[in-house]
Specification:
It is a single chain. The chain is an alpha+beta fold. It has one domain: Glutaredoxin (3-Layer(aba) Sandwich). It is 22% helix and 20% strand. Strands 2-1-5-4-3-7-8 form a 7-stranded mixed sheet, with helices on one face. The protein has a two-stranded antiparallel sheet with strand order 6-9. The chain is globular. It starts with 33 loop residues before the first strand and ends in a 5-residue tail after the last strand.
Amino acid sequence: MRTFCFVVTLITPVIMEAQTSSGYKIGDKVADFRLKNVDGSMVSLYEQKEAKGAIVIFTCNHCPYAKAYEQRIIELDKTYRPKGFPVLAINPNDPKRVPDDSFENMVKRAKEKKYTFPYLFDETQQVARTFGATRTPQVFLLRKSGEDWVVSYIGAIDDNTEDAGAVKNPYVINALEALLKGQEPPVRETKAVGCTIKWKV
């Protein structure tokens, strides 16, 4: 069954062994990236010196799925940034195809919603391609191992797009809590449910 970007439905992500044919897999080391933040600064993954890891989320302005998860992303950052796992949100969409996802509109959205985390513009889409991201929102949960950043979870934030109060499987939270205890996430990969990334043509 196809999922259209303009319809938000209740879908339970299917746990998968492999989600993408390219990009990072569980256990892979992640290369550094440097992207422009909505405040005009450049943000690098590897400059998060005090972090234990990072919640990298590919998201955007226009997608109803991204909007549905917006407050939950803010809460993830507020809860887990002090514990060493900040959110790094990345918009990979081509603004020529989706004007709502322009850098200027990213700045407006971040101010309106009072984002507590960097909101980065992947203008060339190279970071999204390197990660193997396909949807918005889609999470790549990273943990630091020495000097390396390692993929520990890939997929959906939880199992209920429409109702945060009805979530039964908070995949990212469960994975974070496990990592904080020095354990592996109980679920390491799920299918991201959201809008497809709007690639340059």
